[in-house]
Amino acid sequence: DTGVSQNPRHKITKRGQNVTFRCDPISEHNRLYWYRQTLGQGPEFLTYFQNEAQLEKSRLLSDRFSAERPKGSFSTLEIQRTEQGDSAMYLCASSLDGAGDGYTFGSGTRLTVV
Amino acid sequence: AQSVTQLGSHVSVSEGALVLLRCNYSSSVPPYLFWYVQYPNQGLQLLLKYTTGATLVKGINGFEAEFKKSETSFHLTKPSAHMSDAAEYFCAVSEMDNNDMRFGAGTRLTVKP
Fold this sequence. Notes:
- With 114 residues, chain A is mainly beta.
- Chain A has no helices and eleven strands.
- Chain A is 0% helix and 49% strand.
- In chain A, a hairpin with a 6-residue loop joins β4 and β5 (44-50).
- Chain B is an all-beta fold.
């Protein structure tokens, strides 16, 4: 068990560019979550997968954001036409079942839009 | 919807002193409650959780928390602070195993020598 892995750790991009982040959850975990964390704030829920099905999306997830989890394994989060307001830490977490197990978080991808 | 309020964005204690980080929650149904710790440039690590059963829960690194339904609180304590406890601490709530865990804004703990 190598934990939840996120790549890249840091990403600097110019405004208007597209970016994609990857998350590899713990292999036996069915559920995968994406959160966004801005400076001085707690994580905010973005979206959640059970296996390959995306079951819930926050209103924070604008149409520029899309997430996938093909084959119920790794997940990608893509942001199109990035804006400066997208600068944040993007955290991925996984759990075996629901929240009662507690989530295991990755180290996050820090996005800076310049 | 559930929510969490962490009282005090910054707490400073001396090494060896009691640590008390406050968390109050709002939930329309019995909650699941969590404390996570975050070190700089890292993800969140689960310290402890309450789901059902015993209201005093013990976690890693000597931390514990007590679920008090009448006070809608889940305060985190540690009898004796260590320098390595300096970090950001987040309280979180989930309503009966739904899939939208809500986090508080966090409390930064500083430990003075």
